[in-house]
Design brief:
Elements lengths: L19 H5 L41 H5 L30 E2 L11 H5 L6 E2 L11 E2 L22 E4 L25 E8 L5 E11 L10 E11 L8 E5 L8 E2 L2 E2 L1 E8 L18 E4 L1 E4 L22 E4 L8 E7 L8 H5 L7 E2 L6 E3 L17 E4 L5 E6 L8 E11 L2 E11 L1
Parallel strand pairs: 1-2, 13-21, 16-20
Antiparallel strand pairs: 3-5, 4-5, 5-8, 6-7, 6-11, 9-10, 11-12, 14-19, 15-18, 15-20, 17-19, 20-21
């Protein structure tokens, strides 16, 4: 047995990796396999199989689980479905990370026996603490002090491990971006990068790295993301001197400006077969394999990347930003906006290029607000705005706006919009207006 956790991967061997462009040009999807969405048989009312759902074809084995797409917290596609799926609350609720257990077998001094081989541990059962196992431990940081523990305490959508090089195609981009705090150039190719860490005792030799873009959203699931490309890399074990790596996305990202707000970025990294993608599938607050960059930056007036219409006279923003709240899994959500000091957003150090250097906080001259929630096509409400809104039901949006005056040179207005259920934050979006 090659690993001390006493488990063998039970999923099919991965298919050859293809670029997102090659995959999108495939004329016919491959025949559906029973284990594409679930390892267990699907119930008759499970809906269309994965290959029939409108989504870019990818060439790895498991990407999205049915419970993420249903949005109701239950999953009849699995035996015993309806319990929230992968750690969700019984009877419904937002999925969380599934629990695990430790048998203590790895530290009892007894060597490998036929019983270990003939009776492997079940899912989520390990022979000892994860830190003691010969396995990779991949993650991307949610903040500069992040060491991989989940759930994340504080904002998880301002990852310092996602970078871009504006206006440059990957074919011409260097292996390391010359500046780490750049923002996207709309309508032009942009190169993305991800910084991935391994704090495990074993090397990760087949790390799959997936790059996605997302329209401005507070809650992200499989229906929210759009694949840009995927690639593979290898990362050494902890203490090897090669335990972190910067990965360049092989395909260009050409963004648009969605309702005046920059599109968001998400990266997922996992090792096949030693450190699988984990659950919840695309939730950066619970899943260490996922990093999220939901940051809207308006550069100072006159800079070339300051696209879009000029703000009305005396106002810092040209138009509201429409934010999708995301699936709510049958429970109401509280969405709020708060004014934040620039020094409380560590990501801004990447923008200034100097550790400990932030823009000055611009004096408040107005009020940030959120509109009441609207459904698809509801537009931008003009009345009833406030610092907090209650949202019920899926496919709802809120619009962020502010009556603050433009910040002065070297200053910034910073706002954080967050969404929570039961006191736990499940999504956020940060708005930075630079002077």
């Amino acid at each position: 047995m090659s690993r001390r956790d006493g488990k063998y991967p039970q999923r099919p061997a991965p298919r050859p990796l293809a670029s997102a462009r090659d995959a999108a040009m495939r004329p016919e999807p491959r025949p559906r396999r029973e284990d594409d969405c679930d390892e267990e048989p699907r119930a008759p009312d499970c809906g269309p199989p994965c290959d029939e759902r409108p989504r870019k074809v990818v060439e790895r084995t498991w990407y999205f689980d049915c419970d993420d797409e249903r949005g109701d917290g239950g999953d009849p596609c699995r035996p015993g479905g309806g319990d929230g799926g992968h750690g969700g609350k019984p009877g419904g609720g937002r999925p969380t990370r599934p629990g695990g257990s430790d048998t203590g077998r790895g530290g009892n001094g007894v060597g490998l026996t036929p019983g270990d081989i003939n009776n492997p541990n079940g899912s989520g059962v390990f022979v000892g603490p994860r830190a003691d196992l010969d396995l990779p431990y991949l993650f991307m940081r949610a903040n500069p002090a992040d060491l991989g523990a989940r759930p994340v305490v504080g904002p998880f959508w301002e990852s310092p491990d996602i970078f871009l090089l504006a206006g440059v195609d990957p074919a011409a981009a260097p292996a390391v971006p010359p500046a780490l705090g750049q923002i996207a150039q709309a309508g032009a190719p942009n190169t993305l990068y991800a910084h991935i860490w391994n704090f495990g005792n074993a090397a990760a030799n087949e790390v799959v790295v997936e790059f996605y873009w997302v329209n401005p959203s507070l809650g992200i699931n499989a229906n929210s993301v759009n694949l840009i490309a995927q690639t593979v890399t290898a990362i050494g074990a902890k203490g090897s001197g090669k335990a972190h790596v910067l990965v360049k996305c092989p395909e260009a990202w050409v963004p648009t400006f969605q309702n005046g707000g920059h599109e968001c970025l998400l990266v997922r990294a996992w090792d096949n077969p030693s450190d699988l993608p984990g659950q919840p599938t695309l939730d950066a607050s619970w899943n260490r394999h996922v990093a999220q960059r939901n940051i809207h930056v308006n550069p100072p007036p006159g800079q070339p990347l300051n696209a879009g219409a000029a703000p009305p006279s005396g106002l810092a923003m040209a138009q509201p930003i429409l934010l999708k709240v995301g699936p709510l899994y049958g429970a109401p959500a509280t969405v709020k906006v708060e004014r934040t000091a620039p020094s409380a957003v560590p990501w801004l150090q990447l923008r200034t290029g100097q550790r400990g250097v932030f823009p000055a906080m611009a004096p408040p001259t107005g009020v940030p607000a959120l509109s009441p929630a609207t459904g698809p096509g509801g537009g931008f409400p003009t009345t009833g705005g406030g610092a907090t809104q209650q949202v019920r039901g899926d496919d709802q949006h809120v619009a962020f706006s502010t009556t603050d005056a433009p910040p002065g040179p070297g200053e910034a207005h910073v706002y954080r919009v967050s969404a929570s259920q039961g006191g736990a934050t499940f999504g956020g979006y940060t708005v930075v207006l630079l002077g």
